[in-house]
Specification:
Blueprint lengths: L14 H6 L5 H7 L7 H18 L11 E7 L4 E5 L2 E7 L16 E10 L5 E8 L5 E5 L7 E6 L3 E7 L7 H13 L3 E7 L13 H10 L3 E4 L8 H8 L3 E6 L5 H8 L10 H7 L8 E4 L5 E4 L13 H7 L1 H4 L5 H15 L1
Parallel strand pairs: 3-5, 8-9, 8-11, 9-10, 11-13
Antiparallel strand pairs: 1-2, 1-4, 2-3, 4-5, 6-7, 12-13
Helix pairs in contact: 4-11
The protein binds guanosine-5'-triphosphate and magnesium ion (MG).
Length: 347
């Protein structure tokens, strides 16, 4: 995978830091950790056991309410990273967690952790997640258009920056309409951000990106025009993200990670090479991760999506998400989005 900004691998001593900064993918990270002798499962067992011992030493198995609260910043296959007062803990979860976590813990979840007092081979303190607190908001996808299973993606974000690009790849308005519904039904404020304004749109495209963007503004949705290349709209983006938690979502290659790098260069997130991912269908960002913003607030970068299956949307509440269709004033692409969703709900 090509990476414009990726640094050359260095020695083990700063593996932990690179890992915490999301510098590698999960699979690679696991390969890079081969110097550890313990198996992952043994490691999990050890954390659970030592935490349990501590709990019984303290006589506090029942005192979950007094445990400190942290926030989940990334989920890996067997562990998750939880941040509390600028310390990142490597956490395992109890099999019997409370109801909130029935569909799995997600990035942004606020959790009560019990430190095990141990460290992993990379020096990270270890802990057990004992409880997941109620979510204020939750961005959820369904498994597919059939809507059988729900997949929460991000909890407790205030807003969702729905990112598309003028060209390379061009905008899929149907996807934007779906993400707008997901944001609204999860209680997140949506913002439609059209990136790569330095590139000319394809004349044949209908609707033209600018025209459509202005239409969303008329519907009362916040919009933003950006170009990472021309540094266009970045001050406004910073102002919109300041002191809020924002999840960025959109197709692969539209520039989600690039936008985050542009407003917070220290993060130095991995950015894709358009020719590579379009040829191979690769996504540069492979799992959601939360990053604090130096000027206040946080962003959650997510991997690109091709489809966005809706959850909790019914034929009855669908009209409410399409007031323009209900009023008979919607342009063709909005009617098409509505019809497609209605059709998928009828199945
Ligand atoms: N011309 C132009 N290219 C851009 C702009 N923003 C990002 N790019 C390029 O678009 C490509 C994809 O950018 P990424 O930031 O990796 O896209 P992403 O949305 O994070 O992609 P995934 O992680 O796969 O979901 C990179 O080659 C960027 O350099 C822009 O404003 N203008
Ligand atoms: Mg990315």
């Amino acid at each position: 995978m090509s990476s414009r900004r990726r640094k050359k691998p260095r020695q083990n001593e700063d593996l932990a830091e690179r890992y915490i900064q999301g510098d590698f993918e999960e699979e690679n990270a696991e390969k890079e950790q081969r110097f550890t002798n313990r198996s992952k499962n043994a490691e999990q067992e050890k954390i659970l056991k030592t935490a349990a011992m501590r709990a019984s030493d303290e006589g506090s198995a029942a005192g979950i309410e007094s445990l400190p609260i942290g926030q989940v910043i990334q989920i890996h296959s067997l562990f998750c990273e939880v941040e509390r007062e600028s310390v990142t803990y490597l956490c395992v979860t109890r099999k019997t967690l409370n109801k909130v976590a029935e569909t799995g813990i997600v990035v942004g979840d606020r959790v009560r952790i019990r430190e095990s007092g141990t460290k992993d081979d990379l020096g990270r303190p270890e802990a057990v997640i004992e409880q997941v607190l109620a979510r204020d908001t939750v961005l959820t996808r369904s498994d597919s258009f059939k809507q059988i299973e729900q997949h929460p993606i991000v909890a407790n974000a205030d807003q969702m920056l729905i990112v598309a690009s003028v060209a390379n790849p061009g905008v899929k308005w149907g996807l934007i309409d779906r993400m707008l519904i997901a944001a609204q039904s999860g209680k997140l404020k949506p913002i439609v951000c059209l990136n790569k304004f330095d590139l000319p749109p394809d004349d044949a495209e209908s609707p033209q990106p600018l025209e459509a963007l202005e239409y969303y503004q008329k519907l009362g949705i916040s919009i933003l025009k950006t170009s990472v290349e021309y540094e266009l709209g970045l001050d406004l983006l910073r102002a919109m993200l300041k002191d809020r938690t924002t999840v960025l979502a959109g197709s692969s290659g539209v520039g989600k990670s690039s936008l985050i790098n542009a407003i917070q260069p220290q993060l130095d997130l991995r950015v894709g090479d358009v020719s590579e991912y379009t040829a191979k269908g690769r996504h540069t960002t492979t799992s959601a991760r939360r990053y604090p913003l130096g000027f206040g607030g946080a962003v959650i970068d997510t991997p690109g999506v091709k489809v966005f299956g809706l959850w909790d949307v019914t034929r009855e509440n669908l009209d409410g998400f399409f007031p323009d269709v209900a009023a008979g004033t919607a342009p063709p692409w909005r009617r098409e989005s509505f019809d497609r969703i209605a059709e998928s709900l009828a199945k």
